[in-house]
């Protein structure tokens, strides 16, 4: 295959579900009563149910999923989990004690929750291919290198352990044009296995699980919440809604306001199995990588293949968007531009997935409906997986009204208070410009 060739794209739902045994619980086809119903079995829904059942082991929790656990974005990503603060927080004055304390607390809480969740699954004997790693944020030119240097200092103020490689020190780590590299802590996991592991833990703890069970109608009232779907009705005291981007696709009838969000698609391709020499040329360290640019591309190695993703675009979240050939062709061309030595590599799999976000890349986690009986846990764009796992801890307060965790209350308040940091835009712009100028004059990080 040459760089000019138009490859075939073997479309799949997800690379991660290939050659995996899919366990699916029977659908719900009768009326059902529970204390808390969780809608959606992606990472946000699975973590929400786990957080609730850990807080109250006797709680009657039911999970309802329109397809199967990990069907949506949770099972279609690159399997890299990293904990970076929302971009809006970068623009705040992190020399300010309050802003710095808030950012550090959030980073610490999310790190702790990820580690706790993974330890719980490992103790239960589940293999989800978890490995500590780093994400190499690659700067390809002088402008993005200055931005990476500026972000590195901001991350360190926020309590994120980072390493910065500049000039010659960055050369050879990734097999594409590189001016600087910022390493941030990350985990590499198998997303499908992670979703299935969380599902198995929930089943072992008595959570009722119904898959292939779409929801048509959600009604919040003074007595609780009523869900209706084909052939069933669920009556619950509380409902946690985590259906994310596929809410629009399912046309769920809601009697409360849903947050203003944007639905988008992202795309990935996996190459055939490559030789070790070629893999070493892609990344000498074996770690995943992403761009330090507004047009974000990312990749990682798995089982001898390169997984390369990007080409985010606003979408209608219809099934045909998963196979938007123009996006895959553009993604493939970008892969070859960065790694021209892959011009003969065949494509093994191509898949897309919808995600949902708002302009600030802040998840929408709050009470809604009559009496706050519906808890929204939606809109995870950006580095979503770390936030979804953290959301399970937040459910103790939002669903059960537990008030014994001041860090959780502070985190919820921080999410609710985050807006456009107008006051930080000018100082941030000055800081970026000053960093670029210093580097232009020969002063390094």
Automatic annotation (TrEMBL):
Domain of life where this protein originates: Bacteria
One of the Pfam families matching this protein, by short name: DAO
Gene3D superfamilies to which the protein is assigned, alphabetical: D-Amino Acid Oxidase, subunit A, domain 2, FAD/NAD(P)-binding domain
All residue ranges annotated as the FAD dependent oxidoreductase domain in the record: 36-397
Keyword hit for RNA-binding: no
Keywords tagged on the record: Oxidoreductase
Keyword hit for Oxidoreductase: yes
SUPFAM superfamilies referenced in this protein's UniProt entry, alphabetically: FAD/NAD(P)-binding domain
UniProt protein name: Glycine/D-amino acid oxidase
Species of provenance: Roseibium denhamense
């Amino acid at each position: 295959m040459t760089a000019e060739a138009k490859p075939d794209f073997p479309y799949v739902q997800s690379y991660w579900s290939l050659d995996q045994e899919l366990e699916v619980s029977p659908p719900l086809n009768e009326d059902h009563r529970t204390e808390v119903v969780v809608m959606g079995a992606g990472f946000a829904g699975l973590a929400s149910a786990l957080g609730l059942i850990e807080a109250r082991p006797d709680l009657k929790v039911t999970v309802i999923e329109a397809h199967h656990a990990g069907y949506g974005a949770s099972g279609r990503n690159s399997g890299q989990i990293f904990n970076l603060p929302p971009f809006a927080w970068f623009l705040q004055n992190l020399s300010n004690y309050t802003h710095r304390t808030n950012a550090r607390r959030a980073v610490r809480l999310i790190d702790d929750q990820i580690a706790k969740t993974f330890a719980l699954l490992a103790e239960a004997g589940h293999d989800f291919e978890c490995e500590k790693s780093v994400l190499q944020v690659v700067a390809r030119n002088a402008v993005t290198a200055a931005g990476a240097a500026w972000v590195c200092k901001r991350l360190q103020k926020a309590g994120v352990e980072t390493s910065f490689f500049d000039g010659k020190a960055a050369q050879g780590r990734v097999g594409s044009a590189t001016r600087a590299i910022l390493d941030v802590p990350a985990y590499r996991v198998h997303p499908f296995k992670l979703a299935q592991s969380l599902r198995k833990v929930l089943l072992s703890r008595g959570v009722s699980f119904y898959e292939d069970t779409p929801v048509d109608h959600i009604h919040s009232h003074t007595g609780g919440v009523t869900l209706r779907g084909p052939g069933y009705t669920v009556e619950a005291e509380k409902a946690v809604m985590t259906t994310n981007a596929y809410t629009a696709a399912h046309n769920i009838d809601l009697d409360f306001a849903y947050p203003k969000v944007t639905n988008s698609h992202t795309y990935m391709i996996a190459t055939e199995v490559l030789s070790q020499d070629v893999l070493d040329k892609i990344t000498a360290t074996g770690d995943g990588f992403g761009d330090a640019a507004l047009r974000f591309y990312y990749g990682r190695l798995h089982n001898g293949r390169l997984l390369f993703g990007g080409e985010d675009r606003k979408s209608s979240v219809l099934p045909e968007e998963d196979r938007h050939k123009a996006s895959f062709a553009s993604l493939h061309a970008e892969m070859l531009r960065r790694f021209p030595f892959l011009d003969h590599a065949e494509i093994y799999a191509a898949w897309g997935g919808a995600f949902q976000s708002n302009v600030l890349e802040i998840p929408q986690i709050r009470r809604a409906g009559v009496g706050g009986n519906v808890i929204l846990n939606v809109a995870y764009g950006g580095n979503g997986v770390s936030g979804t796992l953290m959301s399970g801890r937040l459910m103790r307060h939002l669903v059960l009204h537990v008030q014994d965790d001041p860090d959780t209350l502070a985190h919820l308040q921080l999410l609710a208070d985050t807006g456009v940091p107008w006051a930080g835009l000018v100082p941030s712009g000055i800081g970026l410009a000053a960093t670029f100028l210093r580097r232009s004059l020969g002063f390094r990080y």
